[in-house]
Specification:
single chain; 280 residues; alpha+beta; 3-stranded mixed sheet; 56% helix; 11% strand
């Protein structure tokens, strides 16, 4: 049970981290936190909350989006103007915005990568827009391709002509390199991770509660057995004197039986002696 309680404490701590990432927008710039804390008409939310990735491809998608991973999506230019005014009024740092109305309704033809070893397909095959936000995916990721390992590019002499991203989150964006290092939680799937952590805490809490209930039941049973044992000892204490008295009576009965037998034997001997005397 102690181990389960430690696991529960760890799960609760992890839940707090994920709740901060989801509800308080931890990991985003202060300008994003400020804008999301004070809703403005036309603000749709952080870009990463409007997209979802195939499981395990969060680092790939985040690397492909680059700085846009911190962008806020607004519906139109009017909403953008309101956000700009709010940022200026609070003297906040810069913030990146994407205007949904700027997004083409029909995706442009996707550029085709040159035949290159390790390139397996488009990044956007692993990303989709929630609701009606699929055009954002086509617009923002139509020039990003997946390479199995960015190490391949480091061994080439020519400058790669395409934007290439590895599943680990390393990226070449035509002008600069970005390495993901040790990785870590991405901003994609923040709500899902928090919900999963919440479910894990609930499961562990029920496990600990069941363990406590079982331990209490076992303790109650143990106390009942102890009480029964003490009761049995008390009853035995009452029976022992009676048994001792019975043993004494049996001993006396034995003595009396032997005395009677001896008297009968003596009487028989005396009877035989009397008969012999008379016959003489």
């Amino acid at each position: 049970m102690h181990q389960a309680q430690e696991q529960l404490a760890g799960a609760r701590a992890q839940r707090e981290v994920f709740e901060g990432l989801w509800r308080r927008f931890e990991g985003f710039p202060e300008a994003v936190k400020s804008r999301m804390a004070e809703p403005i008409d036309g603000v749709l939310g952080p870009l990463v909350d409007l997209l979802e990735t195939a499981p395990g491809y969060e680092p790939l998608a985040e690397a492909a989006l680059g700085p846009l991973v911190e962008a806020i999506v607004v519906r139109d230019r009017s909403a953008l103007a309101r956000c700009r005014q709010a940022l200026g009024a609070k003297a906040l740092e810069s913030c990146r915005f994407i205007v949904l109305d700027d997004c083409p309704r029909q995706p442009a033809p996707m550029e085709q990568p040159a035949q290159q070893a390790g390139v397996s397909g488009a990044v956007k095959q692993y990303v989709r827009g929630k609701g009606g936000f699929q055009p954002l995916v086509d617009w923002l990721l139509d020039d990003s391709w997946v390479i199995d390992d960015i190490e391949r590019l480091l061994r080439e002499r020519d400058v790669p002509r395409r934007r290439l991203v590895s599943p680990k989150g390393d990226r070449w964006d035509r002008r600069s390199w970005r390495f993901n290092g040790s990785g870590g939680p991405t901003r994609f799937g923040r709500r899902q991770r928090w919900e999963q952590a919440e479910a894990a805490v609930d499961t562990l809490a029920r496990t600990v509660e069941d363990a406590i209930t079982s331990a209490k039941a076992a303790e109650d049973q143990w106390q009942t057995l102890l009480a029964q044992q003490e009761s049995d000892k008390g009853q035995l204490a009452q029976v022992v004197p009676a048994l001792q008295k019975l043993e004494q009576l049996i001993a006396q009965l034995g003595d009396e039986t032997r005395r009677i037998d001896e008297e009968q034997r003596v009487a028989e001997l005396e009877g035989r002696d009397g008969e012999q005397w008379l016959s003489a």
